[in-house]
Amino acid sequence: MRILITNDDGINAPGLEVLHTIATEVAGDGGEVWTVAPAFEKSGVAHCINYAHPTMLVELRERRFAAEGSPADCVLAGVHEVMGLAKPDLILSGVNKGNNSAENTVYSGTIGAAMEGALQGVKSIAMSQYFGPANAKLKNQFEASAQHGAALVKNLLENGIWGGDGYQTFYNVNFPPVAGADVKGTRVVRQGLRPTGGMGVQSHMPPNGRKYLWIKGNPQNVCSGKNSDASVNIDGWISVTPMRCDLTAHDLLDDLESRLA
After folding, report:
1. At the top level of CATH, which class does the domain 2-194+222-260 belong to?
2. Predicted TM-score (pTM) above 0.85
3. Strands (DSSP E) found in 13-56
4. Strand order of the sheet with strand 64-67?
5. pLDDT tens-digit profile of 112-168?
6. Is 9 annotated as a binding residue?
7. Looking at 74-199, which runs of residues are DSSP E strands?
8. I want to staple 114 with a disulfide (CB 3.0 to 4.6 A). Which of 140, 170, 215, 259 is the partner?
9. 77 near 36, Cβ under 8 Å?
10. 8 is in an annotated binding site
11. 96 labeled binding residue
């Protein structure tokens, strides 16, 4: 199996090393793991692409590349340039430092890479590690994903629902904020929404007298509704959420058409 891995935390992020270990186990004997990751951190860029500017690509060593672009750019570089004429069998994105549950999903460059992989017709999985009091002081904060990641990917490859007409399915996986031994199992759940909502801003007035704004997140260890990702993560479960790039609110189509007729 040939696997392409990427992330949004950057080529030197510890979560990428965890993902490389996971991918190596999944690829098996004779398999290949290729890395194309952003040269610098690209958190929060969602599915952005470097459309108006060229993307510099640097080979660091065999099968390891850094791209001066977004996670989606890295997928495009891997699929169409780095890995030659044959597409990868699987794209893995992560392991993100922090959760991509609930509303975080729509901001996430980790998710953006998996979206692009699905648009390229490749099986794709985004993987993120939730942080909280129970794993904040562990020697390896990625313990849950490191211990359970490979088995989960193998399970999804064997038993997941892939393909379909139109937009392809990809998966958003979040590992709970607990030690590896305390993971309760896996739940297939919907994307939730925390009552605290999306991002906000905090202003800062430096000595030059010009106002600057820092983008800031809201509290993360907040449940996101029954049978949803953040809620089961906080309760110690790995969440698996099937997703597609189709943003249509299908449940509103008929009603809206009748209203506008």
Report:
1. alpha beta
2. yes
3. 32-38
4. 57-61, 64-67, 32-38, 2-6, 90-97, 123-129, 170-175, 237-243, 185-188
5. 999 999 999 999 999 999 999 999 999 999 999 999 999 999 999 999 999 888 999
6. yes
7. 90-97, 123-129, 170-175, 185-188
8. 170
9. yes
10. yes
11. yes
